[in-house]
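Re: the request from the purification team.
They wanted to know what the chain is likely to look like in 3D before they choose a buffer screen. I agreed to run a prediction and write the result into the notebook, where they can find it.
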Amino acid sequence: MLIKTRHFGEVDIADDRILTFDNGILGFEDHKQYTLLYDSSEGERPPVSWLQCCDIPELAIPVISPLGIAEDYNPDVEDELLKPLGELTDENIVLLTTLTVPADVKKMSINLRAPIIINSDNRKGAQIIVENQDFPIKYEIYDILQAKKEGRA
């Protein structure tokens, strides 16, 4: 499938790289198909990827795994909300959070309240609002990333 993207121009995406979000994502419920893109010019996958909508080039959301940032992140999710994704295992679950990078990069944050959960076996995904009220919508990560980069974390 040839798609136009916000950051990478036209990209030919294999069918097995298309993710289906039956309920869309928050704010974009009518758009169901996405793919994960990243700049691989460095030779290895960078921590930040783009959740790129397949039918709207401008709809590309930066995402990152929260597990290397908030090590104690273990959201409570209602089982009923996960059923459409099929059987999730440690091997097939992909957990991502949306990343916001404002003009002041030191205010960069991830949304721990509404993670994106993907079953890599069947390529079904969902953005879920977690039950844990103690997970913030804006969890600032700049200092955490700097500490990791400098080997302090």
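For the purification team: Residues 142-149 form the longest helix (8 residues).
Please add any questions underneath this entry.
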